[in-house]
Amino acid sequence: MKKLNLVIRDCLILTPEMDILRGSSIGIKENKIVVISKYEDIKKEYEIEQTIDGNNKLAMPGMIDAHMHTCQQFLRGGTADEYPMVWSRILVPFESSLDESDVYASSRLCALEMIKSGTTGFAESGGPLIHAAIEGYLESGLRGKIAYSVMDQDDAIPSSMKSSTNELLKRTQSLYNQYQGVGNGRIGIYFGLRQILTCSTDLIRESGQLARELNTGVHIHLEEHREEVRYCLQKFKMRPVDYLDSLNLLGPNLIAAHSVLMTDSEISRISETQVNVVHCPRSNLSSHGIPRTPTLLEAGATVGLGTDGASGHNMDLFQEMKILRSAIRVSYGLSLFDPVSMTAKSLLKLATKGGAKALMIGSEGGELAEGKLADIILIDLDKPHISPSLNYINTLVDNVSGLDVSDSIVDGKLLMKDREVLVFDEQEILYEAKRHANSVKKRAGI
Ligand SMILES: [Zn+2]
User: Fold this and answer.
1) Is 254 helix (H, G, I), strand (E, B) or coil?
2) Which residues in 223-362 belong to E strands, given as ranges?
3) pLDDT band at residue 162, thresholds of 50, 70 and 90?
4) Which DSSP helix (H) or strand (E) runs through 105?
5) How far apart are CA 70 and CA 57, in angstroms?
6) Which residues surround ligand 1, an ion (CB under 5 A)?
């Protein structure tokens, strides 16, 4: 008789078409979804090792945070209601004061927060000493694409955070040699480029070239703020997307985080080249505006969602979906009297399938179907703000939060069951986090 390691029994299932399938069960073997069918039929064909009761629960693909900052986890509450420049006054002194043990503790707190809010995969956009974070993420069982913070120019940055172009390229290459594909393929290494202002033309061009040779990705902050656009126009007589295009950087292996300031012609180029646009709605709204998501989607662009880390908000992607829904309704919907300018189905796709493409696992992940990766979360529906509902697709976006996630499975392994995290000692992580956060705060003088 064939074997299954895990079966989620009799749950509601969010299908790849964004419909709700009722009364079915999901059978998992090793790291894949092998069968989705009625429990009675599965039982006839398979020997089952472990069963989770899915009664009153909804199974959906795990959320993917396609732009976050491990090294800003201890900056929570530290960047809101501050005058500019937050980057030079707060972020730079903070990140440059971290040591390896702080980064390790940050990664464990990040992982704990992600597991408890339904995130199963992430793209770390680039922090200092990021090798120390990989150890924490390996323990967590989460799936992630990780980059070093890479900067080789800008006088405002202390020399400890900058290096020569060659040194930076070598550093990511050796990180790649050491960690690419570890944790059963869950961890991958991307080339980080902090932003156009802090990276030389050579660094950008060669990072793109090396990433293509190694068949991996590049993660950059792009068209996030006006200063960056002004810099590109002044220095290169091109807008940021055109500048990266001239350096052969645009492609399906590029994460362009934020992307709120794009012109029509940039949007069509981004779509043609299948760049992964990643909006961080709460972060974008607090500083640089509302992204042009409906225009991007209409042009056929790939769009994912990110939290931009925990410094300004938290790592709950359900909140990002809600804020983007409201922002687009105000900016596009109201002016055109279009009540379906940002549907729940499209938002759920951004947070799952869009994120999977950004992690370069679009063909294997981001949806619940036979043969796909078993990265699954269960939502506890038995709550007064969720059930009953006439339309669980709308309810997932408008009502559910990360706190309603009861179980998390990544790569076929159960990381959280009934909100008990199985891979970490939660109390120890919280204790260590406080200790490290206090110590960095003192050292950074903020
Ligand atoms: Zn960011």
Assistant:
1) strand
2) 254-258, 276-279, 302-305
3) confident
4) helix 100-116
5) 30
6) 308
Q: Residue 19 Cα, ligand 1 centroid: separation in angstroms?
A: 32
Closest CA to 444 of 161, 146, 225, 104: 161
- Rounded-to-integer distance, Cα 334 and Cα 80, Å: 28
Closest CA to 131 of 160, 99, 162, 153: 99
CATH number given to 63-358: 3.20.20.140
Domain-wise residue ranges, the chain: 2-61+367-419, 63-358
pLDDT of residue 149: 85
Distance CA 220, CA 211 (A): 13
Q: How far is the CA of 127 from the centre of ligand 1 (A)?
A: 10
User: Is the pTM value of this prediction over 0.85?
Assistant: yes
- Quote the ligand 1 centre to 307 CA distance (angstroms): 8
CATH code, 2-61+367-419: 2.30.40.10
Give φ, ψ of 242 to 5 degrees. Answer: -65, -35
Cα–Cα distance, 215 to 238 (Å, whole number): 28
